[in-house]
Each structure stands twice: as C-alpha cells, then as structure tokens.
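Help wanted!
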Amino acid sequence: MNTLSKRKIQNKVALSLSTLAAAIGLFWLCFILWDVFRHGLSFITLDLFTKDPVPPGFGGGGLRNAFVGQMLITLVAMVIGIPIGVLGGTFLSEYGRHSRLGRFISTLSDIMVSVPSIVIGTFVYAIMVKPIGHFNGWAGGVALAIIMIPVVIRTTEDMMALVPWSLREAAFALGAPYYKVITQVVYRGAATGIFTGILLSIARVAGETAPLLFTSFNNSFFTTNLNDSMPSLTVTIFQYAMGPYDDWHGMAWAAALVITVAILIVTIVGRLLIKWRYRS
Amino acid sequence: MTFSAAMVVLVVIVGIFFSLVKQAVPAISKFGFFGFISTVTWDPVHEVFGAAASLYGTIVTTVLAMAIAIPVSIGIAIFMTELCPNALKSAMGTAIELLAAIPSIIYGMWGLFTLAPIMGDTVEPFLQHTIGKVPYLGSLFSGTPLGIDILTASTILSIMIIPFIASIARDTFNLTPQVLRESAYGIGATKWEVIRNIVLPYSKGGVFGGIVIAMGRALGETMAVAFVLGNKHEIARSLLDASATITVTLANEFTEADSDMYMASLFYLAVILFVMSLITLAAAKFILKERAKS
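Answered by r_m:
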C-alpha cells in the first residue's frame, strides 16, 4: 500500500509538472502577443501607412517608405524564390526521387532551412553589395529568396509525394509524357499544399531582419528604386527600437504589431488550408 | 530545368562557404585558426581580432537556453500527447506553432522593452539574494543586475526554441505503438510510469534529434539576442554580464567595419558560425535518419 501511494504521488507530481510546462509555453505566447498589442495599438494611425518618417522630435510622420520597401523586397524574393523552389521540389519528388543526388539535395535543403540567416546576409553582401559598392534592394530580395527556396522545395516535394502513384499511372496509360503528367495531374493534385508552402515561406521571410541588415540596409526616404538602399519594416524596427527617442519606440511597436498580425494570420490560414485539404 | 532548380541549393551552400572563406582570407592568414579562436581581444583600432569572446558568448547562451528549454518542451510534449483533452489538442498545437512563427525581431524588441526591465529589477536581484549567497555557484550571479545580459538573452532564446523541440518530441511520442502503452497499463503502471518507462525510451532518438536541431537554431539566432546582450567583447564570468555572440558581433559591426582586416575578421566569424551550424544540423539529420531506419 505504501509503494502504491508513493507511485500515485509520483504520478501526480510528474503530470502536474508537465501541465505546468504547457502553461509556461502558453504564458509566453500570450505575454508577448499582449504586449505587442498593448504598446502597438495606440500608435496605429492612418499616418503610419501614408506618411514618410520625419526627424525625431517633430511628431507625426509614418513608415510608408518601410511598408513599400518591405513589399518590394519581398516581391523580388517571391519572383526568384517561388519558381526555383517549386521546380526544385518537382525534381526531388519526380525525376530525382530514386537518385542519390536527389536524396542528398533533399537533406541539404532540410539543413539549409535552419542555416543562420545572418550568414546568408554576409554571403549576399560578399557577392552583391561589395562588388557594386553600395547597398541595394535587389540584394535584400536575393537574400530573402535564398531563405525561401529550401522551404518551398521541401514542402513542394512532400506535397507532390502525397499524390497517389495510381493517378500518375492512369495518366501514363493514356500515353501522356511525364511532363504532361506532372503539370496536369500531379500539380493539380498538390496545388493546395504547394500554395500553402509558399504562403508559409512568405510568412517566414517577411519577418527576417538579419539578412537585410547588410544587403538592402535602410533608408529614411521613400524609394521604389531597387538599385538604391531600401528601407524594410524589420530593419526599421531594429533601428527605431535601439534608438533613444520615444516617438521611435512607439513607431517600432506599431510596425511590430502590423508585422506580427500579418504573419500570424498567414500562418493560421496556412494551417487551416492544410487541414481542410488533407482532412482524411 | 527542374534539375537545375534543385541544384541551386547545392550551389548556394557551396557558394556561401567559398565566398565567405575568400573574403576572410586576410584574417585567416594573419591570425590562423587556433590563434583566432583563442584570442579574446577584439580591437578594431589596433586591428587585433580574436573570436574567443564571441564564441564563448555563443556557446554559453546556447547551452543555457537549451537547459531552460529542454525540460519545458518535453513537458509540453507530454501534456499534448498524454494529458490534453482531444478538443484542445489542435488549439495547443496551433499555439506552439504560433510561438515559432513570431519573427525573431519581435522577440528581441519585446525582450528589450519588457523582459529586460523585469529581469533587471525583480528576477536578478532575487537570484542574487538566494542562489547568489551559495559559495562557488554565487559567482555566476555577481555584478550589477541591469537586465542586458547573458541570462536575459538565454531566456529569450529558450522561448524561441521551445516550439522546435516540443513539436518534434510530440510527433515522436505519438509514434509509440499503442500496444506497448496498453500492455504497460495492463500490468498496472501509472500514467507517469508508462511515459517514463515506455514512451520516453521508445522516442529517445527522435527527441534527441529535435534537441540538436534546436541547438543549431539557437547558435545562429541573431535579432532576438542582439537587443539584450550588449555586444561586449569580454569573457563574462557572471551570467549577469553583457556579452557578445558571433551573430550579435556581425549584426552590430558589419556595416561599421572600416578596415579590410576588420571586415575579413567579421567574415571569418561568419565562416566559423556557418560551419558550426552546418555540422550541428547535419548531425541532427543523421540522428533522425538513423532512427527512421530502425
């Protein structure tokens, strides 16, 4: 009886501890989100989106330049990253699925997903900023694309592998060449999954700061010229939050709120899409 | 076409390595490898550079973050697989995933404005008055608690890596065959005994792989620590001292480097970080693969 009650107590203690751990995880999430909302909400104004920054101390002004810059840089990343990612994923799941090289690249992409993003920043600096001589928006886009590619490759590969082989065989039996089978059967079957992977990869790069620090750098003026250094929301947050002015801190919180909400919405939509598509 | 797209990954990884090494050549030839990693001095004025302080900061913050994150994440995974009512399971999974989706810059900023004051005003003085009194162990908590220090940085890092460990641990726990669990329950084991003697040993490899992946992440995390570590190039004895990691040094000094040797040394740091994280992540993949085979 004594050992039994001891075992029961042990059981209770251990299970309470793990519940506590779950509570700690949730606590951090709520704490961070609540703080971002609390500080950011009061600084969300129309001006934030429509005006450019003014010198600190003057009051007013906004971050239009950073919003536009962020979108342009992300757009460049998407234009480069999505086609390469989807095509690469196609190779890994279709043509190269049995080759050693294919397996190797698949593993390599998995590793590259977690390579420190700041290292990618220094790499792009070495190949695209140093030779040109000044920071530019293209470099920022390329840096984000490099982060995006392995994410898209891996999700595309996984999603295409989920399409049953019998479907492909049915198409082969009708005499379709492999590329037709891929574009008309496999892509259609995997479309939602690939799209979700792309969405999640955009959410991933939209919050990246480190690779932009030495590539697109920052710019306090409005610009759409990708050959020039280009402002982005994340680098602006870094600069403003580290700066000494209260207006800057407020702006940084507001920008943080916008970017967090956008990323969380995209992430949740992605999850729901996957759930809805692969319910069975 | 698809083949060349897939090859981009290989080309980029090889390209990163060679272009970084090429940029770092002046520093490599001047300081050597062991000379570089064992020198503490980081003096841009006299152009003497050593990686010891940054390396030390990187390793200490990572180890400390792992020490905080591992028990919490495994607890979360146990909760999600064994205790959580089914209706809550997916909500809990989403919550953990959201924690991973929050950009690191938000963690950093929140750390600077919210966590650092809390740590500096409340938590750290408390630690000093309790653990700080214990001989030997106490020296870890000496100094003035400002909140901009290794302890705060590691706390933030630990929050960031919890989702990685927790989700991999949850997935491997779920792989434990139901028959094994039921037979343990059948001979009268309590829930905790089932977890400790059946589930945990069965999923050891997977959890370990997840931990190593999270470690790779923690090594390379930049923005979350850049705000709260202070970028001080010294080997800090106390956890309440400012420090620097490789990533923080790069983020703060890369755009300011004015001499070629300074620049080359920063690239050298980037090479070291790149190789460290590649090795860690490759090891993690290897562990997970071996496990999948068996």
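OP: Thanks! One thing I noticed: The mean pLDDT of chain B is 87.
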